[in-house]
């Protein structure tokens, strides 16, 4: 019996050393990541804890610190993290156009320029966007946007293909679109066209 106890203790010690590492420290979780078309290693957090960036579409997130995406339980928490107050005025016109295939201006660096919503009428999870996103799929938002707000006088151009290709939907300065008609759930990339 004593021999069995000694062997059991030795096996437990071996198992602990394999999981805890040579220093005896507790194992650490690895940060899930994705690589975007530009080669950026994209990571995300939810309430400070690492999550797979594709899961960002389940929460309220912002891209201010891209390639780190920060997610929260509510849009109010996003606004608080950013030091913003979400605008209260809405518009209802947009500009739709043909493919431009690479004929666009660089991003305006004045801050967030658009908020994308999972559902119509600005409902569901939301993504507050700073900078260009050549692939919404990295964040789980490919073919998922149903309403958008242009904020801070940004002029977002949402493309149906990754890397700013194909047809697009464009809102003017501070114009909101509560639904996107035939463009609902079709966008794959976004860039700001503000001068």
Description:
The chain contains two helices and 13 strands; from the N terminus they run H-E-E-E-E-E-H-E-E-E-E-E-E-E-E. Strands 1, 2, 3, 4, 5, 7, 8, 9 and 12 form a nine-stranded mixed sheet that branches. Strands 6-11-10-13 form a four-stranded antiparallel sheet, with no helix packed on it. It is globular and about 40 Å long. Strand 7 (114-119) and strand 8 form a beta hairpin. Helices cover 14% and strands 29% of the residues. The chain has a single domain (34-192), classed as Crystallins (Gamma-B Crystallin, domain 1, Sandwich), CATH 2.60.20.10. It is an alpha+beta fold and 195 residues long.
Please tag this protein with its features:
single chain; 195 residues; alpha+beta; Gamma-B Crystallin, domain 1; 9-stranded mixed beta sheet; 4-stranded antiparallel beta sheet; 2 helices; 13 strands; 14% helix; globular
Category from helices, strands and their pairing: alpha+beta
Count of separate structural domains: 1
Query: What's the total count of β strands?
Result: 13
Largest sheet: 9 strands, mixed
Number of helices: 2
Characterize the overall form.
globular
Quick summary:
With 195 residues, the protein is α+β, with helices and mostly antiparallel strands. The chain has helices at 2-20, 75-82, and strands spanning 34-35, 41-46, 49-51, 60-62, 68-72, 95-97, 114-119, 123-129, 147-150, 156-161, 165-170, 176-177, 189-192. It has a single domain (34-192), classed as Crystallins (Gamma-B Crystallin, domain 1).
């Amino acid at each position: 019996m004593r021999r069995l106890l000694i062997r059991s203790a030795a096996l437990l010690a071996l198992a602990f050393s394999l999981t805890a590492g040579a220093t005896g420290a507790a194992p650490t979780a690895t940060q899930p990541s994705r690589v975007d078309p530009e080669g950026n290693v994209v990571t995300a957090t939810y309430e400070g804890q690492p999550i797979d960036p594709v899961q960002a579409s389940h929460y309220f997130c912002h891209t201010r610190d891209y390639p780190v995406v920060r997610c929260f339980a509510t849009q109010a928490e996003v606004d608080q993290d950013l030091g913003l107050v979400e605008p209260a005025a809405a518009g209802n016109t947009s500009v739709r156009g043909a493919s431009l295939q690479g004929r666009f201006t660089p991003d305006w660096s004045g801050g967030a320029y658009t908020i994308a919503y999972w559902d119509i009428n600005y409902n569901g999870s939301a993504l507050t966007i700073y900078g260009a996103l050549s692939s919404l799929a990295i964040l789980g938002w490919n073919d998922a946007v149903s309403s958008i707000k242009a904020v801070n006088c940004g002029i977002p151009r949402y493309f149906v293909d990754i890397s700013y290709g194909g047809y697009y939907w464009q809102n003017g300065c501070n114009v909101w679109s509560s639904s996107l008609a035939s463009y609902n759930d079709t966008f794959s990339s976004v860039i700001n066209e503000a001068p």
